[in-house]
Amino acid sequence: MILAVNVIMLIVVLAPVVVVIWMSFTPSATFILPVTDFSLRWYREAFSYPGFVDAFGLSFELAALAAVITVALSFLAAYGLVRYRPAGGEALKAFFTAPLLVSAVVFGIAMLQFVNRLGLYNQLGGLVLAHVVLVVPFAIRSLEVTLRAVPEELEWAAMILGRSRVGTLLRVTLPLCARGLITAFLFCFLLSFSEVTTTIFMTGPGLQTLPVRIYNYMSDRIDPTVAAVSALVVMVSLALVAALNLLGGLRRLTSQ
Amino acid sequence: MLARRIGAPALFVAPLVLVMVVGFVWPLVGVLVNSLHPNTPQGIDAGHWTVGNYARLADPFYGEILLRTLRISVAVTAITGMLAYPVALFASRLSARAQSLFLLAYISPWLINTVVKALGWTLLLRTNGMVNTLLRGLDVIAAPLKLMLNETGVIIALIPGHFMFVLLPLWVALSGLDPALSWAAGTLGARPSAVFWRVVFPITLPAFVAGLVINFIMNMTVFAIPVFLGGARNMVASMLAYQINLVQLDWPLGGALAVALLAFTLTLVWAGQRGAALLAAGKGLQP
User: Fold this and answer.
1) CA atoms of B45 and B56, how far apart (whole Å)
2) Closest CA to A60 of A182, A192, A184
3) Dihedral sign, Cα of residue B82, residue B85, residue B87, residue B89
4) Cα(A192)–Cα(A59) distance, rounded to whole angstroms?
5) Model's pTM, two decimal places?
6) Which of B36, B43, B207, B257 is the most exposed place for a label (fewest CB within 10 A)?
7) Residue A14 domain-assigned?
8) What are the backbone angles phi and psi of residue B39, rounded to the nearest 5°?
9) Which residue of A has its CA nearest to B164?
10) What is the least distance, in Å, from the CA of B23 to any CA of chain A?
11) Residue A108 structural domain
């Protein structure tokens, strides 16, 4: 009984992703079942469609910017919280993780009205700000764990031997946290790269990330080209998940 | 020590606080303020204050949409609850190596964007889609089933979509369970079913409830899945929010909807946490 539920659930979880990849290799112009032949025709089609190529570039740039900014700011904040244990530290941590409690739709509406007021509508800057806020909760949690694992005695030793606080941070703490920083970066990148809902509310025709472009394309028609683009998105995401898994970042999610 | 001087931690924390105030607090306060101004053909009338936008949400047309959203969310969360427990139980009993593979199988699709998964579900569930083709090929059904562009399609696609929010906390709770507890109950004469219902289930209940609350909130505000699997005739709250904010451009009303959704979900989170704490306290256990 328990085994049956598990098998069914595993199929249900994996099926939508598997079917997109499978269908993207169809040689025909419609999704005629079953697909037995193999063709890269729709991948060529997808790469020659400028809308998708531009959107991929934008998504990549946005995810990289958002992840770098988030990891840098969150590392500094986590350092302040973990090493100094300031009064109100718990409240600050709650503040940094608060975006988890606000649904992407509500935040999207708020950001839409906000960027318009500031004249940031359809600007990369507005999107970067929104994505930073959305991924900060994940970065701050994981970097806090990373910093707690670095023995404070090592920093004391460096400072006793004459390094300044900042010098110690740069030459001792940062290298010791390298693995945690890379994990946080990849996770933030992946979350930003996959973000749909808030972004849809914030972007017009001029500035579309890849998920938003796929969304708009699908609203018009569903064909093997969009399946090929989606399959590419899946492959990029899976590569990031695999990298995270190798770094041990996924286990952290279940051991908190 | 110089570094322990008051103000040093502030320097480290300040940049992130600044970004969060500008990018998070300010937009949310702004949407609240907008929701309290009347809308005019010229835009938001910032000179006047009103609660009329909230009253407009009580319109029966909106009421029907919000009711449908609730109905779908309750169904998805209920089914998720029934499925997530056996899956978590199974997962927590696997070897460490099998557990990480199992986690990978669940987490990978979860981290892929929802539009791609909506495409996958469309290819599976539509009239000439994979499920119907398979069932007809096996002679299980004569005519294709209508599996999407209705609430059924939305519910089917949403169950795996937010499954992890229940599975993960439950998995952690079950993995952290001291095996001695079940063993002790067993030596005192409890049957396996009694061990589960009287010992294991009560201990994991707070984590289970917390996960279900988050799952429910996610279902209430999910966007891409209902657009493609439900269609325009099965509008839910998030599609209404899109319609009001980006098509009608009525930001005061859109703001009121955002604030109402936020207030509703935060109340649920609070109630869920209180409930979980009470459950834990009632059993004399720490959450």
Assistant:
1) 17
2) A192
3) negative
4) 8
5) 0.90
6) B43
7) no
8) -95, 140
9) A13
10) 6
11) 42-254
The ipTM (two decimal places) reads 0.89
Across chain B, how many H-helices and E-strands are there? 15, 2
Is the pLDDT higher at B74 or at A222?
B74
Domain count, chain A: 1
- What is the distance between the alpha carbons of residues B12 and A92, in angstroms, rounded to a whole number? 12
Whether A96 contacts A30, CB under 8 Å: no
Q: Is B278 helix (H, G, I), strand (E, B) or coil?
A: helix
Answer yes or no: do A117 and B31 touch at CB < 8 A.
no
Burial profile B27-46: b = 16 or more Cβ within 10 angstroms, e = fewer: bbebbeebbbbebeeeebee
Preceding amide of B169 cis, omega within 30: no
Please write the tens of the pLDDT for every residue from A11-49: 999 999 999 998 888 887 776 666 677 888 888 888 888
B109: nearest Cα among A20, A97, A189, A247: A20
In a domain, A20, yes or no: no
Which domains, and CATH codes, for chain B? 66-282 (1.10.3720.10)
Q: Do the beta carbons of residue A236 and residue A193 sit within 8 Å?
A: yes
Tokens of A170: 């740069």
Residue B44 DSSP code: E
The answer as to whether A247 is a domain residue is yes
pLDDT score recorded for residue B84: 94
CA distances, B27 to each of A134, A210, B116 (Å): 13, 25, 29
Residue A119 lies in a domain: yes
- The CATH number covering residue A76 comes to 1.10.3720.10
Alpha-carbon distance of A227 to B260, in angstroms, equals 37
- Cα separations (Å) of B197 from B179, B190, B192, B242? 15, 10, 9, 44
CB contacts of A86 in chain B (<8 Å) are 9-10, 13
**Is there a contact between B113 and A193 if contact means CB atoms under 8 Å apart?**
yes
Residue B91 to residues A117, B171, B174, B200, Cα–Cα distance (Å): 49, 7, 9, 15
Judge whether A126 and A115 are in contact, CB under 8 Å: yes
Which residue type occupies A225? T
